Amino acid sequence: MLPGGWCVNIQKVLVILKPDCGQRGLDNEIVSILEQVGLVVLRKDARCLTEREVLFLYDEHKQTSTFPDLVSYMVSGQSMILVMSGIDAVAKVTRLKGRTGSGKGIRGMYAENFIRNIIHSAETVYETNGEVVMFFPDEDISMNEKKVIFGLSGMTECGKSTAGEYFRRVLRF
């Protein structure tokens, strides 16, 4: 707690500057935008993503008609993979990146289309923890973790297995 009762929430967040960002020479500009709100780059790696990594990042989109194009695009060139840290980092990056087509945020300013939209980041702490560990297995994410105890019960076919799989894959339980 800070004086006056304020509590700060320092978090880490994984940010991926997609291939079009680098191809257009926007990497430094986007990092600068993120740093202007108090985020700090802790780790940085420039490389091409693997299909396995893209499937992990965009699993929720795999049933869409644009998914094959998204995968093809994401493995087509080098991406800048960043671990950034700051107060409420996940929410700040989510707000700054904006939504494709909204005309707001980084995507609003720079996106060419739904797929070529410059930037990726998870929108929850739990998702970002999984992404950080995926790309930087030795990175300490303990500052992001909140311990929760819960139980699942119910009749057959009520969703316990689905919830359990979600906890295992996304929340990394």
Automatic annotation (TrEMBL):
Organism listed in the record: Candidatus Yanofskybacteria bacterium RIFCSPLOWO2_01_FULL_49_17
InterPro entries: NDK-like_dom (IPR034907), NDK-like_dom_sf (IPR036850), Nucleoside_diP_kinase (IPR001564)
Protein family (similarity comment): Belongs to the NDK family.
GO molecular function: ATP binding; nucleoside diphosphate kinase activity
Nucleoside diphosphate kinase-like domain: residues covered: 10-143
UniProt cross-references to SMART domains, sorted A to Z: NDK
Gene Ontology biological process terms from the UniProt entry: CTP biosynthetic process; GTP biosynthetic process; UTP biosynthetic process
Keyword vocabulary terms for this entry: ATP-binding, Kinase, Nucleotide-binding, Transferase
Name this polypeptide is given: Nucleoside diphosphate kinase-like domain-containing protein
